[in-house]
Protein backbone atom coordinates (compact mmCIF):
# COMPACT_ATOMS: atom_id res chain seq x y z
CA UNK A 1 0.00 0.00 0.00
CA UNK A 2 1.35 3.44 -0.89
CA UNK A 3 1.85 5.73 2.08
CA UNK A 4 0.62 9.34 1.96
CA UNK A 5 1.57 11.94 4.55
CA UNK A 6 -0.41 15.16 4.79
CA UNK A 7 1.23 17.89 6.88
CA UNK A 8 -1.15 20.55 8.22
CA UNK A 9 -4.78 20.12 9.29
CA UNK A 10 -6.09 23.34 7.78
CA UNK A 11 -8.24 23.91 4.72
CA UNK A 12 -5.89 22.28 2.20
CA UNK A 13 -4.94 19.36 4.44
CA UNK A 14 -8.46 18.48 5.63
CA UNK A 15 -9.96 18.63 2.14
CA UNK A 16 -7.17 16.44 0.73
CA UNK A 17 -7.51 13.95 3.62
CA UNK A 18 -11.29 13.68 3.21
CA UNK A 19 -10.93 13.01 -0.49
CA UNK A 20 -8.04 10.53 -0.16
CA UNK A 21 -9.97 8.59 2.51
CA UNK A 22 -12.16 7.31 -0.35
CA UNK A 23 -9.15 5.67 -2.00
CA UNK A 24 -8.81 2.23 -0.38
CA UNK A 25 -5.40 1.59 -1.96
CA UNK A 26 -3.66 4.36 -0.03
CA UNK A 27 -2.62 4.54 3.62
CA UNK A 28 -3.08 8.16 4.72
CA UNK A 29 -1.67 9.90 7.80
CA UNK A 30 -2.44 13.51 8.70
CA UNK A 31 0.22 15.18 10.86
CA UNK A 32 -0.90 18.45 12.36
CA UNK A 33 0.23 20.54 15.31
CA UNK A 34 -3.18 21.07 16.87
CA UNK A 35 -6.21 18.89 17.56
CA UNK A 36 -8.36 21.75 16.29
CA UNK A 37 -9.19 22.93 12.80
CA UNK A 38 -9.69 26.68 12.49
CA UNK A 39 -12.37 27.91 10.11
CA UNK A 40 -10.60 31.26 9.71
CA UNK A 41 -13.38 33.16 7.90
CA UNK A 42 -15.49 32.94 11.09
CA UNK A 43 -12.77 33.61 13.68
CA UNK A 44 -13.82 37.25 13.96
CA UNK A 45 -17.31 36.05 14.91
CA UNK A 46 -15.95 33.92 17.76
CA UNK A 47 -13.96 36.93 18.94
CA UNK A 48 -17.17 38.94 18.99
CA UNK A 49 -19.11 36.46 21.11
CA UNK A 50 -20.69 34.03 18.69
CA UNK A 51 -20.67 30.26 19.07
CA UNK A 52 -17.11 28.91 19.25
CA UNK A 53 -17.75 25.73 17.37
CA UNK A 54 -18.56 27.64 14.19
CA UNK A 55 -14.84 28.37 13.79
CA UNK A 56 -13.00 25.93 16.04
CA UNK A 57 -13.62 22.25 15.39
CA UNK A 58 -12.05 18.96 16.43
CA UNK A 59 -9.97 17.53 13.56
CA UNK A 60 -11.20 14.03 14.41
CA UNK A 61 -14.80 15.15 13.72
CA UNK A 62 -13.82 16.23 10.22
CA UNK A 63 -11.77 13.37 8.83
CA UNK A 64 -12.98 9.77 8.34
CA UNK A 65 -11.77 7.02 10.68
CA UNK A 66 -9.48 5.39 8.11
CA UNK A 67 -7.21 8.46 8.24
CA UNK A 68 -4.58 8.26 10.97
CA UNK A 69 -4.24 11.58 12.78
CA UNK A 70 -0.94 12.41 14.51
CA UNK A 71 -0.67 15.55 16.64
CA UNK A 72 2.91 16.70 16.16
CA UNK A 73 4.89 19.43 14.40
CA UNK A 74 6.74 18.69 11.18
CA UNK A 75 10.20 20.20 11.34
CA UNK A 76 12.39 18.63 8.64
CA UNK A 77 12.00 17.06 5.24
CA UNK A 78 14.47 14.89 3.35
CA UNK A 79 13.22 14.64 -0.21
CA UNK A 80 15.96 12.20 -1.27
CA UNK A 81 15.01 9.71 1.49
CA UNK A 82 11.31 10.66 1.33
CA UNK A 83 10.98 11.31 5.04
CA UNK A 84 9.38 13.93 7.27
CA UNK A 85 10.75 14.49 10.78
CA UNK A 86 8.62 15.82 13.60
CA UNK A 87 9.28 17.76 16.80
CA UNK A 88 8.77 14.62 18.90
CA UNK A 89 11.78 13.06 17.11
CA UNK A 90 9.80 10.62 14.92
CA UNK A 91 10.67 10.00 11.28
CA UNK A 92 7.77 9.31 8.91
CA UNK A 93 8.33 7.66 5.53
CA UNK A 94 6.17 8.65 2.53
CA UNK A 95 5.51 7.70 -1.06
CA UNK A 96 3.63 10.98 -1.44
CA UNK A 97 3.47 14.03 0.81
CA UNK A 98 1.09 16.99 0.72
CA UNK A 99 2.35 20.04 2.61
CA UNK A 100 -0.19 22.68 3.66
CA UNK A 101 1.14 24.39 6.78
CA UNK A 102 -0.40 27.85 6.41
CA UNK A 103 1.23 31.15 7.33
CA UNK A 104 2.45 32.81 10.52
CA UNK A 105 2.03 36.35 11.86
CA UNK A 106 4.70 38.86 10.95
CA UNK A 107 5.26 42.08 12.89
CA UNK A 108 7.71 43.52 10.35
CA UNK A 109 10.14 44.15 13.20
CA UNK A 110 8.00 47.02 14.61
CA UNK A 111 8.92 47.56 18.24
CA UNK A 112 6.51 46.45 20.94
CA UNK A 113 3.95 44.80 18.65
CA UNK A 114 4.84 41.20 19.38
CA UNK A 115 4.85 41.93 23.11
CA UNK A 116 1.72 44.06 23.46
CA UNK A 117 -0.64 43.47 20.54
CA UNK A 118 -3.35 40.82 20.30
CA UNK A 119 -4.20 38.52 17.40
CA UNK A 120 -7.16 36.38 16.37
CA UNK A 121 -5.44 33.59 14.42
CA UNK A 122 -5.52 30.80 16.99
CA UNK A 123 -7.56 29.50 19.92
CA UNK A 124 -4.89 30.85 22.29
CA UNK A 125 -5.00 34.27 20.60
CA UNK A 126 -8.76 34.45 21.03
CA UNK A 127 -8.67 33.33 24.67
CA UNK A 128 -6.01 35.93 25.43
CA UNK A 129 -7.99 38.69 23.77
CA UNK A 130 -11.22 37.75 25.57
CA UNK A 131 -9.39 37.66 28.92
CA UNK A 132 -8.06 41.11 28.18
CA UNK A 133 -11.34 42.68 26.98
CA UNK A 134 -13.37 41.33 29.90
CA UNK A 135 -10.53 41.71 32.41
CA UNK A 136 -10.03 45.38 31.66
CA UNK A 137 -13.73 46.08 32.19
CA UNK A 138 -14.07 44.02 35.38
CA UNK A 139 -10.91 45.37 36.99
CA UNK A 140 -11.22 49.08 36.07
CA UNK A 141 -14.99 49.32 35.61
CA UNK A 142 -14.31 51.14 32.35
CA UNK A 143 -13.79 50.49 28.70
CA UNK A 144 -10.42 51.14 27.10
CA UNK A 145 -9.86 54.67 25.81
CA UNK A 146 -9.40 53.29 22.29
CA UNK A 147 -9.69 49.91 20.63
CA UNK A 148 -7.33 49.76 17.67
CA UNK A 149 -7.47 47.23 14.84
CA UNK A 150 -4.40 47.39 12.60
CA UNK A 151 -4.73 46.24 8.99
CA UNK A 152 -7.50 47.26 6.62
CA UNK A 153 -7.61 43.90 4.81
CA UNK A 154 -10.67 41.62 5.07
CA UNK A 155 -9.82 40.45 8.62
CA UNK A 156 -9.38 43.99 9.97
CA UNK A 157 -12.57 45.20 8.31
CA UNK A 158 -14.82 42.34 9.51
CA UNK A 159 -13.34 42.46 12.99
CA UNK A 160 -13.59 46.22 13.58
CA UNK A 161 -17.20 46.17 12.33
CA UNK A 162 -18.08 43.27 14.68
CA UNK A 163 -16.28 44.78 17.69
CA UNK A 164 -18.53 47.78 17.79
CA UNK A 165 -21.68 45.83 18.77
CA UNK A 166 -19.74 43.31 20.88
CA UNK A 167 -18.06 45.88 23.13
CA UNK A 168 -21.35 47.67 23.73
CA UNK A 169 -22.92 44.35 24.72
CA UNK A 170 -20.20 43.32 27.17
CA UNK A 171 -20.11 46.82 28.66
CA UNK A 172 -23.84 46.53 29.32
CA UNK A 173 -23.43 42.99 30.74
CA UNK A 174 -20.89 44.33 33.20
CA UNK A 175 -23.16 47.26 34.16
CA UNK A 176 -20.91 49.98 32.75
CA UNK A 177 -23.19 53.00 32.55
CA UNK A 178 -21.29 55.33 30.22
CA UNK A 179 -19.93 53.26 27.43
CA UNK A 180 -18.67 55.35 24.55
CA UNK A 181 -16.72 52.90 22.42
CA UNK A 182 -13.86 54.28 20.32
CA UNK A 183 -12.80 51.86 17.62
CA UNK A 184 -10.22 52.83 15.03
CA UNK A 185 -9.12 50.84 11.99
CA UNK A 186 -5.59 51.69 10.85
CA UNK A 187 -4.36 51.00 7.32
CA UNK A 188 -0.99 51.96 5.80
CA UNK A 189 -2.30 52.05 2.19
CA UNK A 190 -4.40 54.97 0.84
CA UNK A 191 -7.59 52.88 1.17
CA UNK A 192 -8.92 49.90 3.10
CA UNK A 193 -9.33 46.57 1.25
CA UNK A 194 -6.49 47.68 -1.05
CA UNK A 195 -6.48 44.40 -2.99
CA UNK A 196 -10.11 44.91 -4.02
CA UNK A 197 -11.70 47.44 -6.41
CA UNK A 198 -11.77 51.09 -5.16
CA UNK A 199 -15.61 51.05 -5.32
CA UNK A 200 -15.59 48.25 -2.76
CA UNK A 201 -13.20 50.16 -0.49
CA UNK A 202 -15.53 53.17 -0.61
CA UNK A 203 -18.61 51.14 0.27
CA UNK A 204 -16.83 49.39 3.15
CA UNK A 205 -15.49 52.69 4.51
CA UNK A 206 -18.95 54.28 4.45
CA UNK A 207 -20.46 51.29 6.21
CA UNK A 208 -17.74 51.22 8.88
CA UNK A 209 -18.28 54.91 9.60
CA UNK A 210 -21.99 54.21 10.00
CA UNK A 211 -21.05 51.57 12.58
CA UNK A 212 -18.99 54.28 14.36
CA UNK A 213 -15.62 52.85 13.43
CA UNK A 214 -13.02 55.53 12.69
CA UNK A 215 -11.13 54.62 9.51
CA UNK A 216 -7.56 55.98 9.23
CA UNK A 217 -5.73 55.31 5.96
CA UNK A 218 -2.18 56.33 4.94
CA UNK A 219 -1.33 55.57 8.56
CA UNK A 220 1.78 53.63 9.48
CA UNK A 221 2.25 51.90 12.80
CA UNK A 222 5.65 52.86 14.21
CA UNK A 223 5.68 51.21 17.63
CA UNK A 224 3.64 50.07 20.60
CA UNK A 225 4.06 50.38 24.36
CA UNK A 226 1.90 48.99 27.19
CA UNK A 227 -0.33 52.07 27.03
CA UNK A 228 -0.07 53.53 23.55
CA UNK A 229 0.31 52.94 19.86
CA UNK A 230 2.35 55.32 17.72
CA UNK A 231 0.85 55.77 14.26
CA UNK A 232 2.54 58.13 11.74
CA UNK A 233 3.93 60.23 14.60
CA UNK A 234 0.59 60.30 16.51
CA UNK A 235 0.43 58.60 19.91
CA UNK A 236 -2.93 56.94 20.59
CA UNK A 237 -3.65 56.01 24.23
CA UNK A 238 -4.72 52.35 24.25
CA UNK A 239 -4.11 48.99 25.83
CA UNK A 240 -5.95 47.15 23.08
CA UNK A 241 -4.26 46.79 19.73
CA UNK A 242 -5.33 43.92 17.49
CA UNK A 243 -2.77 43.23 14.78
CA UNK A 244 -4.15 41.74 11.55
CA UNK A 245 -1.72 43.41 9.15
CA UNK A 246 1.10 40.99 8.42
CA UNK A 247 1.73 37.37 7.57
CA UNK A 248 4.76 35.45 6.34
CA UNK A 249 5.09 31.97 4.90
CA UNK A 250 5.50 29.14 7.39
CA UNK A 251 9.14 29.00 8.69
CA UNK A 252 9.32 25.26 7.85
CA UNK A 253 10.29 26.19 4.28
CA UNK A 254 13.03 28.63 5.27
CA UNK A 255 14.33 26.10 7.78
CA UNK A 256 14.55 23.54 4.95
CA UNK A 257 15.66 25.94 2.24
CA UNK A 258 17.97 23.44 0.55
CA UNK A 259 14.81 21.40 -0.20
CA UNK A 260 12.66 24.14 -1.74
CA UNK A 261 12.89 27.00 -4.20
CA UNK A 262 11.28 30.06 -2.63
CA UNK A 263 9.73 33.03 -4.47
CA UNK A 264 10.34 36.69 -3.55
CA UNK A 265 7.32 36.43 -1.22
CA UNK A 266 8.94 33.43 0.50
CA UNK A 267 6.34 31.03 -0.93
CA UNK A 268 7.28 27.70 -2.52
CA UNK A 269 7.71 27.56 -6.28
CA UNK A 270 5.66 24.62 -7.61
CA UNK A 271 5.21 23.01 -11.03
CA UNK A 272 1.98 22.67 -13.04
CA UNK A 273 0.88 19.85 -10.71
CA UNK A 274 1.53 21.87 -7.52
CA UNK A 275 4.59 19.73 -6.86
CA UNK A 276 8.23 20.32 -6.00
CA UNK A 277 9.09 16.79 -7.18
CA UNK A 278 7.12 13.69 -8.19
CA UNK A 279 6.39 12.84 -4.56
CA UNK A 280 5.77 16.19 -2.82
CA UNK A 281 2.82 18.55 -3.31
CA UNK A 282 2.82 22.02 -1.72
CA UNK A 283 -0.59 23.69 -1.61
CA UNK A 284 -2.67 26.49 -0.05
CA UNK A 285 -1.01 29.54 1.48
CA UNK A 286 2.42 27.88 1.14
CA UNK A 287 2.46 27.66 -2.66
CA UNK A 288 3.35 30.50 -5.01
CA UNK A 289 0.19 30.33 -7.14
CA UNK A 290 -2.49 32.72 -8.35
CA UNK A 291 -4.98 33.55 -5.55
CA UNK A 292 -2.75 31.98 -2.87
CA UNK A 293 -3.74 33.28 0.58
CA UNK A 294 -7.44 32.39 0.42
CA UNK A 295 -9.33 29.47 1.92
CA UNK A 296 -11.15 28.94 -1.37
CA UNK A 297 -7.81 28.44 -3.13
CA UNK A 298 -6.54 26.03 -0.46
CA UNK A 299 -9.76 23.99 -0.77
CA UNK A 300 -9.51 23.91 -4.57
CA UNK A 301 -5.85 22.85 -4.35
CA UNK A 302 -6.60 20.22 -1.68
CA UNK A 303 -9.09 18.62 -4.09
CA UNK A 304 -6.65 18.90 -6.98
CA UNK A 305 -3.68 17.40 -5.09
CA UNK A 306 -5.76 14.45 -3.81
CA UNK A 307 -7.07 13.74 -7.30
CA UNK A 308 -3.67 14.15 -8.99
CA UNK A 309 -1.99 11.96 -6.37
CA UNK A 310 -4.55 9.16 -6.81
CA UNK A 311 -3.86 9.17 -10.56
CA UNK A 312 -0.07 9.32 -10.17
CA UNK A 313 -0.17 6.38 -7.75
CA UNK A 314 -1.44 4.26 -10.66
CA UNK A 315 0.96 5.81 -13.19
CA UNK A 316 -1.55 8.14 -14.87
CA UNK A 317 -0.45 11.73 -15.55
CA UNK A 318 -3.09 14.18 -14.30
CA UNK A 319 -4.17 17.37 -16.07
CA UNK A 320 -2.28 20.51 -15.06
CA UNK A 321 -3.69 22.54 -12.19
CA UNK A 322 -5.92 25.44 -13.26
CA UNK A 323 -6.62 28.25 -10.76
CA UNK A 324 -10.23 29.14 -9.93
CA UNK A 325 -11.28 32.78 -9.56
CA UNK A 326 -12.46 33.23 -5.98
CA UNK A 327 -15.40 35.38 -4.89
CA UNK A 328 -14.37 38.06 -2.38
CA UNK A 329 -17.12 38.61 0.17
CA UNK A 330 -16.19 40.62 3.27
CA UNK A 331 -18.73 41.05 6.08
CA UNK A 332 -19.04 44.58 7.47
CA UNK A 333 -21.33 44.24 10.49
CA UNK A 334 -24.31 41.94 10.95
CA UNK A 335 -26.03 40.74 7.76
CA UNK A 336 -24.12 43.20 5.57
CA UNK A 337 -21.11 42.63 3.30
CA UNK A 338 -19.19 43.90 0.31
CA UNK A 339 -18.71 41.53 -2.59
CA UNK A 340 -16.45 41.42 -5.62
CA UNK A 341 -16.90 38.53 -7.99
CA UNK A 342 -15.83 38.95 -11.60
CA UNK A 343 -17.62 42.08 -12.83
CA UNK A 344 -19.95 42.20 -9.82
CA UNK A 345 -19.02 44.83 -7.24
CA UNK A 346 -21.65 45.41 -4.64
CA UNK A 347 -22.34 46.05 -0.96
CA UNK A 348 -25.42 45.49 1.20
CA UNK A 349 -27.68 42.87 2.71
CA UNK A 350 -27.78 40.76 -0.46
CA UNK A 351 -23.98 40.43 -0.29
CA UNK A 352 -24.43 39.63 3.42
CA UNK A 353 -26.66 36.71 2.41
CA UNK A 354 -24.10 35.59 -0.16
CA UNK A 355 -21.54 35.50 2.59
CA UNK A 356 -23.82 33.31 4.69
CA UNK A 357 -24.12 30.87 1.78
CA UNK A 358 -20.37 30.99 1.18
CA UNK A 359 -19.92 29.84 4.79
CA UNK A 360 -22.33 26.95 4.27
CA UNK A 361 -20.26 25.81 1.28
CA UNK A 362 -17.04 26.34 3.26
CA UNK A 363 -18.35 24.15 6.10
CA UNK A 364 -19.48 21.47 3.64
CA UNK A 365 -15.97 21.38 2.16
CA UNK A 366 -14.45 20.39 5.49
CA UNK A 367 -17.24 18.38 7.19
CA UNK A 368 -19.76 17.26 4.57
CA UNK A 369 -23.26 18.62 3.93
CA UNK A 370 -25.29 17.19 6.82
CA UNK A 371 -22.94 18.40 9.57
CA UNK A 372 -22.49 21.68 7.71
CA UNK A 373 -26.22 22.42 7.52
CA UNK A 374 -26.75 21.63 11.20
CA UNK A 375 -23.89 23.92 12.26
CA UNK A 376 -24.76 26.67 9.79
CA UNK A 377 -28.31 27.07 11.09
CA UNK A 378 -26.90 27.90 14.56
CA UNK A 379 -24.17 30.33 13.57
CA UNK A 380 -26.12 33.36 14.76
CA UNK A 381 -26.34 31.97 18.29
CA UNK A 382 -24.30 33.83 20.86
CA UNK A 383 -22.63 31.90 23.63
CA UNK A 384 -19.82 33.31 25.65
CA UNK A 385 -18.84 33.07 29.26
CA UNK A 386 -16.95 36.02 30.71
CA UNK A 387 -13.52 34.55 31.57
CA UNK A 388 -13.29 36.88 34.58
CA UNK A 389 -16.68 36.87 36.30
CA UNK A 390 -18.20 33.77 34.63
CA UNK A 391 -21.30 35.69 33.55
CA UNK A 392 -22.88 33.73 30.77
CA UNK A 393 -23.87 35.66 27.70
CA UNK A 394 -26.22 33.66 25.48
CA UNK A 395 -28.73 34.31 22.79
CA UNK A 396 -30.21 31.62 20.63
CA UNK A 397 -30.87 33.54 17.44
CA UNK A 398 -33.48 31.14 16.14
CA UNK A 399 -35.51 31.57 19.34
CA UNK A 400 -35.68 35.37 19.08
C1 LIG B 1 -8.61 35.70 10.53
C2 LIG B 1 -8.60 35.15 9.13
C3 LIG B 1 -9.73 35.30 8.31
C4 LIG B 1 -9.73 34.78 7.00
N1 LIG B 1 -10.85 34.93 6.24
C5 LIG B 1 -10.88 34.39 4.99
C6 LIG B 1 -12.06 34.47 4.18
O1 LIG B 1 -13.09 35.05 4.60
N2 LIG B 1 -12.05 33.89 2.96
C7 LIG B 1 -10.95 33.23 2.47
O2 LIG B 1 -10.99 32.71 1.34
N3 LIG B 1 -9.81 33.15 3.21
C8 LIG B 1 -9.75 33.70 4.45
N4 LIG B 1 -8.60 33.61 5.20
C9 LIG B 1 -7.43 32.93 4.64
C10 LIG B 1 -7.57 31.42 4.78
O3 LIG B 1 -7.90 31.07 6.10
C11 LIG B 1 -6.27 30.74 4.37
O4 LIG B 1 -5.97 31.10 3.05
C12 LIG B 1 -6.41 29.21 4.49
O5 LIG B 1 -6.58 28.86 5.85
C13 LIG B 1 -5.17 28.52 3.92
O6 LIG B 1 -5.30 27.14 4.07
P1 LIG B 1 -3.98 26.26 4.31
O7 LIG B 1 -4.41 24.84 4.32
O8 LIG B 1 -2.93 26.69 3.37
O9 LIG B 1 -3.48 26.70 5.76
P2 LIG B 1 -4.25 26.69 7.15
O10 LIG B 1 -5.71 26.57 6.97
O11 LIG B 1 -3.72 27.84 7.92
O12 LIG B 1 -3.75 25.33 7.81
C14 LIG B 1 -2.44 25.13 8.26
C15 LIG B 1 -2.48 23.99 9.25
O13 LIG B 1 -1.17 23.55 9.54
C16 LIG B 1 -1.00 23.36 10.93
N5 LIG B 1 0.43 23.51 11.21
C17 LIG B 1 1.14 24.65 11.32
N6 LIG B 1 2.44 24.38 11.53
C18 LIG B 1 2.55 23.04 11.54
C19 LIG B 1 3.65 22.14 11.69
N7 LIG B 1 4.90 22.58 11.86
N8 LIG B 1 3.40 20.82 11.67
C20 LIG B 1 2.15 20.33 11.49
N9 LIG B 1 1.07 21.14 11.33
C21 LIG B 1 1.27 22.47 11.34
C22 LIG B 1 -1.89 24.43 11.54
O14 LIG B 1 -2.28 24.14 12.87
C23 LIG B 1 -3.08 24.38 10.59
O15 LIG B 1 -3.98 23.38 10.99
C24 LIG B 1 -8.58 34.13 6.51
C25 LIG B 1 -7.44 33.99 7.32
C26 LIG B 1 -7.47 34.49 8.62
C27 LIG B 1 -6.23 34.33 9.49
What is the CATH topology classification name of the largest domain? FAD/NAD(P)-binding domain
Number of discrete helical segments? 10
> Sheet with the most strands?
6 strands, mixed
Shape designation: globular
Care to count the β-strands?
25
Strand content: 25-35%
User: Rounded to an integer, what's the Rg over CA atoms?
Assistant: 22 Å
CATH class of the largest domain: Alpha Beta
Helix % is 25-40%
Mean pLDDT: 94
Which segments are poorly predicted (pLDDT under 50) over 5 or more consecutive residues? none
**What hetero molecules are in the model?**
flavin-adenine dinucleotide
Compute the separation of the termini in Å: 54 Å
The assigned structural class equals alpha/beta
Number of domains: 2
Strand order of the largest sheet: 5-2-1-9-20-19
Structure description:
The chain has helices at residues 11-20, 43-47, 113-116, 123-140, 154-173, 198-210, 251-255, 295-312, 349-367, 369-376, and strands spanning 2-7, 26-32, 36-38, 56-58, 68-71, 74-78, 83-86, 91-93, 96-99, 103-105, 147-150, 183-186, 213-216, 221-224, 228-231, 234-237, 240-243, 247-249, 275-277, 280-282, 328-331, 337-341, 344-348, 382-385, 392-395. It folds into two domains: 2-33 and 72-105 and 247-312, FAD/NAD(P)-binding domain (3-Layer(bba) Sandwich), CATH 3.50.50.60; 113-245 and 328-399, FAD/NAD(P)-binding domain (3-Layer(bba) Sandwich). A six-stranded mixed β-sheet has the order 5-2-1-9-20-19, covered by helices on one side. The longest helix is centred in the middle third of the chain and has 20 residues, at 154-173. By secondary structure, it is α/β, with parallel strands linked by helices. The chain is built from ten helices and 25 strands. Bound molecules: flavin-adenine dinucleotide.
